Amino acid sequence: MSSTWPLEILQSLRERDDTEKKDVKYFRAFTQLAQQLENLKQSFDRSTTIGSLPHSSANHPSSSSSSSSSSSSSSSSSGNGAITSNTPSPSLVVPSSSAVKSKKQQVDDIDLRLVKAMSQNQQLANENSDLIDNLNSVTLKNEQLELTINDRDGKIRRLEKGVLKLKQKIENLEMEIKEKNKTIELVNDELLTSQLQNNVLRNQQGK
């Protein structure tokens, strides 16, 4: 196995993480753009509605005036004590500057919350990236430790086999030594017998 395999594995993991990060960024950017577009549409709809109301009432001052006078005359002629109000309908009231400022403040608050949320998301993304890098580093170390352990286990197995072979050789040598000792004993016995026979022959010759 090549000695550069840890670097290759780490590079592959980093490329995978970079791809995932890019996809997450695109998805978040798309979501944010969609939300901003929806907010712009709502703001545009509100401004269009507000802008159209004064224009509508301005185009028909006579009808509004005649309606008010007719309402007053009918109220006075009826004589039932009912009181009519000349206040315009709420739907025709032009928003005051304070209401506009309030709306603007709400939009600013939403933008501020959006910026904070984006900042928090970026911080979480950075923390997630750090965690992924740490996890990849730990995974790589674990793989290296597993390889070291497997290598040591292989050496231990080879040493055990060598010990068994040496034990077998020792047993074989012990058997050979025993056989040779027996042979030596037989030779010694034969030599002793020969010496005794020689002594007997010498004694016979001396007589």
TrEMBL record:
Q: Does the keyword Coiled coil apply?
A: yes
Q: Where is this region: Disordered?
A: 1-21, 48-100
Q: Which residues form a coiled coil?
A: 114-190
Spell out the Polar residues composition-biased ranges. Answer: 48-61
**Is the keyword Disulfide bond assigned to this protein?**
no
Q: Which InterPro entries match?
A: Autophagy-rel_prot_16_dom
Stretches of Low complexity bias are at: 62-78, 88-100
Q: Domain Autophagy-related protein spans what residues?
A: 8-201
Keywords per UniProt:
Coiled coil
One Pfam family, short name please? ATG16
Family the UniProt entry places it in: Belongs to the ATG16 family.
UniProt protein name: Autophagy-related protein 16 domain-containing protein
Q: Which organism is it from?
A: Lodderomyces elongisporus (strain ATCC 11503 / CBS 2605 / JCM 1781 / NBRC 1676 / NRRL YB-4239) (Yeast)
